Automatic annotation (TrEMBL):
Organism field: Ferrimicrobium acidiphilum DSM 19497
Protein name according to UniProt: Uncharacterized protein
Record-annotated membrane-spanning stretches: 12-35, 47-68, 80-103, 109-130
Keywords of the record: Membrane, Transmembrane, Transmembrane helix
Length: 142
């Protein structure tokens, strides 16, 4: 198995774990964070939960871009497509999340779009990890 394949498998697994942690913080935001309509980024309470959610989302985006880069040299068919779909899901979730907070946290539709972006990214990375796990052990180049 090539080093690129191992790197991509590690990044896929990391993304899946981070997405699940992000889901927990997203749920905590829905249940416990009150977003102030006039100053959503400064007067929300408890703001730390919201900021941790945002930081994990940005880390997921950076990790996704690293995955696209790693998949460019990946001989495995579909690796690039899976990573692009995963990053697209993250971008959709981030865009909906920004709009949600800027709108005072009152939009069920934006909340749904965030969840759909999360789901798209989770499935893309899970399928990528599955396909990479089935790669032939004959590939031993570095």
């Amino acid at each position: 198995m090539s080093k690129r394949t191992l790197d991509l498998k590690l990044l896929s697994f990391t993304s899946i774990v981070a997405l699940l942690i992000e889901f927990i913080f997203g749920t905590a935001n829905v249940l416990y964070v009150t977003i102030a309509p006039r100053n959503p980024w400064g007067a929300s309470h408890p703001i730390a939960v919201l900021y941790i959610h945002v930081i994990i989302g940005l880390a997921l985006l950076i990790n996704g871009i690293m995955m696209i880069n790693a998949s460019l040299e990946q001989p495995e068919a579909g690796a690039l497509g899976h990573t692009i779909v995963g990053v697209a899901g993250i971008i959709i979730a981030i865009a909906a999340g920004l709009a949600f907070v800027n709108g005072g946290g009152r939009s069920n539709l934006l909340s749904l779009i965030m969840a759909l972006g999360f789901t798209l990214a989770l499935f893309a990375y899970a399928f990528l990890l599955y396909h990479l796990s089935r790669t032939s052990p004959k590939q031993t180049d570095a």
